[in-house]
Amino acid sequence: MKTYLPSDMNVKPLGRTLFRENMRWMCYSATGVEFLFEGKTLCIVLQGDDRCETEGMGGNLARVRVLADGVCIADAMIQKADTRLEYTLSENNLPVRKVIRVLKVSETAMSTVAIREITVDDDAVICPTKKKQHLIEFAGDSITCGYGVDDEVAEHTFKTDTEDATKAYAYLTCQALDCDHSLVSISGYGIISGYSGDGERRADQLLPTYYEKMGFSYGSMNGVYPQDVPWNFEKMQPDLVVINLGTNDQSFTLKKEALCREYCEEYQRFLKTIRRNNPNAKILSILGIMGMDLCAMAEKAVAEYKEETGDENVRFVPFEEQLEEDGRAADWHPSQLTHKKVAARLAEIVRNYMNW
Question: Which of 84, 97, 217, 225 is deepest in the core (most CB within 10 A)?
């Protein structure tokens, strides 16, 4: 057997990852690596963060999936600091050639996880896959994370073992367009407030606070928290940034004029943050899948931003609210069918907007 480190020499990073102390840390949803494998046997050695063995974590550990040519060959909750995902890929004892993806499909806040090493048989080799022609980044909330997508019982609540970003609209859109992806999303987060069940502001749950970071998590990466690590935007520049934020804000704004206006103003400030860090990207603002209360204010924010800055590479497109007949996932989140329908529409919008 021989071992590869998950460095840029051996794997292609997917999304915002951090290669630190010879390990590749994954925080945000759908972060991970991709590589071309030629051989018979494959073992991905993972390291959980400092919360993975804490009592009371329940289902909120990191969930990792391994895909071979798009087919899932491993799906694991990382319950200990040393986890080995082993698989024999040979056919009739002959080596195979497959594209391997290792993805953290749960979100950043509850847990992080690292790829420590990749072990293969003696005759096997791995190498990074090529970058796709285009990269799309998504700034969003639970919808982008794939909250509850594997539990289509609306009355059920949040668990990371029913969350899978690869079944959510953002990842599916990139698959449809054959693009690389980057997801910057946290469940419950908003522009001026996180989800408020009592009308009180949740000022600690704002996605713009962490947009320029590796992530936000209660679990550390061997003593370093992702919110303390600035993201280096030079590592990858998206062609398009899609914003889907406002679903949680509407639980706080409650159609109150002053709060809606504040949302509009802060949205414009976030647009400026995105433009500062991604000077050549187009920006697409969408909203409405779980409620359309703030669509008009998001559209107004885009219009006022364009008028102030002269930046014409920004557009707003409203999305219709999810349909009852398409089902619901946990906590009334979009079902797999809804995500597929949103992805199909969004992919077409992107094709037209970007001339791809």
Answer: 217
Nearest-angstrom CA–CA distance, 19 and 13: 9
Query: Across the chain, where does the E strand assignment appear?
Result: 2-4, 12-14, 17-20, 23-26, 31-39, 41-48, 63-68, 71-77, 83-88, 96-104, 113-120, 125-128, 135-140, 180-185, 240-244, 282-287, 314-318, 328-329, 333-334
Beta-carbon-side half-sphere exposure of residue 20 (alpha carbons within 13 Å): 17
Structural class in CATH, domain 135-354: alpha beta
What pLDDT sits at residue 58? 56
Tokens of 313: 């590479």
| Two structure tokens written together for 47 | 């390291």
The tens digit of pLDDT for each residue in 145-166 reads 999 999 999 999 999 999 999 9
Q: Which CATH architecture has domain 2-128?
A: Sandwich (2.60)
Domain coordinates of the chain in residue numbers? 2-128, 135-354
Cβ-in-10-Å burial (0-12, 13-18, 19+) of 209 comes to middle
pTM: 0.96
Compute the Cα dihedral for 283, 181, 31, 195 and give only its sign. positive
